[in-house]
Amino acid sequence: MEPSVYLTGQILLAMPGIGDPRFERAVIAICAHDTQGAMGIGVGATIAGLGFHELLAQFELDPSGVPDVPVHFGGPVEPRRGFVLHSTDWGGQDTVDVAGKWALSGSIDVLRAIAEGVGPSRWLVALGYAGWGEDQLDEELTRHGWLNVPGDPAIIYDTDVDLRWERGFKAVGIDARLLGVGGGTA
After folding, report:
1. Contacts of 29-33 spanning 24+ positions with Cβ under 8 A
2. Average pLDDT score, the chain
3. Of 61, 28, 19, nearest to 131 (Cα)?
């Protein structure tokens, strides 16, 4: 089954009652989606007790010039692997442009650039990612579970993490407070 639209550069929102507690109220920036599968970075939750300064210290980078922002839960796959989702005004050795909306980097050069004040103008750090195998996301999109919305960088960078899920629904005219977990009967 080949999808009619690939979602690279879109945002996925978990519907209420998705059935997997790891994805309750998930907001995922899709960074790759093709015939081989899909990959995205969760931007809707942070990891309690882990700040950016602690992460920089692990790489012996001076954190004094940057804010100690929370680190995001990027997803359940490879939860010790780090990623930086960032604006397209910076690029490093492994940076991937995501549909001209944001970029994704996963090597230490982006952390070093941020610490030195010469990195991307907008960024967030995440551990782990959400991944889907061949046709898996396409199949999940045919059932109740996910809603894809336009990949608006403002949802990622200009919205408090606790409000991103609601803002994503609002972007397509849905009041998330009115969403139910179960279906009715007729």
Report:
1. 29/85, 29/98, 29/102, 29/151, 29/156, 30/98, 30/148, 30/151, 31/85, 31/96, 31/98, 31/104, 32/8, 32/96, 32/98, 33/3, 33/6, 33/7, 33/8, 33/137
2. 92
3. 28
Q: Can you tell me the distance from the alpha carbon of 28 to that of 73, in angstroms, rounded to the nearest whole number?
A: 10
pTM here is: 0.91
Sorted by where each begins, the domain ranges of the chain are 11-178
Residue range 21-56, pLDDT digits in tens: 889 999 999 999 998 999 999 999 999 999 999 999
CATH of domain 11-178: 3.40.1740.10
Contacts of 56 (CB under 8 A, 6+ apart): 62, 63, 66, 111, 115
Task: With a cut of 90, say whether residue 177 has pLDDT above it.
Answer: no
Q: How far apart are CA 121 and CA 142, in angstroms?
A: 37
